[in-house]
């Protein structure tokens, strides 16, 4: 086909083409169906959001409750007898009688065994704080978590977990005892606090709060002298008895006493402590007597390290209680 023939063929083409039928009804129906589909989808969005909110509330409620298992007898949660297991919610009291015991799962970080004749309440159960209140009785706590996440309130003060296991007992007035079997616990009453490492004990009194910690094999006369200083009269006489009876193993007690005696007696306590366990480099007498944080913390680090070795390796190696080292070290 030459150029002229091609032009003639194009000229014979129709100027417009009419559809064989009206297509608009089908197009309109399709548009309507798609709009209806979108309306149905938007209808489900608020329902899905509401369902997610309900699940969130349910999940939060579950996190605010801890599992409890009856170990013996039938403990009470509120006014309900616990047959086998149950849930302890924030605000609930768990109570055991003289023949019942229970085990509380502390969220996902540990557990607390509740011994007979004990009353304990769940105060806070959140991601950043786990808190019980021990009104009276005895609990055995074991927690594996970052420090200062688990707390137990008592009438005399609060036990602050630093990653540990311990037994805490108190009567309804606040007189009690703390015994740490792993890690370390800080017990605080207002501005007064004590650090209790593994293998150490501490007396607790309602009017004073934490006493002076002492090692579990401390001689009875030494413990009596500490109790007299912490809770009795004649503190000046008691402190002299403590210093005369102290051994190198009792350095953690003297470290606490340095911060509790009258300023005029601090030099006496420091000199006895330094004679039993020499201070580490950088710790000065002047700084320690002035209760400078750097000196106190530096000394505590050395005392804690020596105490840990003496406790863990007790009966396995003969260690120098002044340094924590063996003869070969």
Describe the structure in your own words.
The chain is an alpha+beta fold. The chain folds into two domains: 63-211, Sandwich (Jelly Rolls); 216-329, no CATH class. 35% of the residues lie in helices and 29% in strands. The chain has eight helices and 18 strands. The chain has helices at residues 3-11, 24-63, 220-231, 235-245, 251-258, 266-276, 285-289, 293-312; strands at residues 65-72, 76-77, 80-81, 85-89, 93-95, 101-106, 110-114, 119-125, 130-143, 150-154, 157-161, 165-170, 176-182, 184-189, 192-197, 200-205, 209-210, 214-215. The protein has an 18-stranded mixed beta sheet that branches. Helix 3 packs antiparallel against helix 4 and helix 5 packs antiparallel against helix 6 (266-276). It is extended. The termini are far apart.
Number of helices: 8
Distance linking N and C termini: 110 Å
**What is the gyration radius calculated from CA atoms?**
36 Å
DSSP strand count? 18
**Global structural class:** alpha+beta
Helix content: 25-40%
* N to C succession of SSEs: HHEEEEEEEEEEEEEEEEEEHHHHHH
In CATH terms, what is the architecture of the largest domain? Answer: Sandwich
How much beta, percentage-wise? 25-35%
Chain-averaged pLDDT: 87
| Overall 3D form | extended
Q: Biggest β-sheet, characterized?
A: 18 strands, mixed
CATH topology of the largest domain: Jelly Rolls
Poorly predicted tracts of residues: 42-62
- Return the CATH class of the largest domain: Mainly Beta
Indicate how many domains the architecture comprises. 2
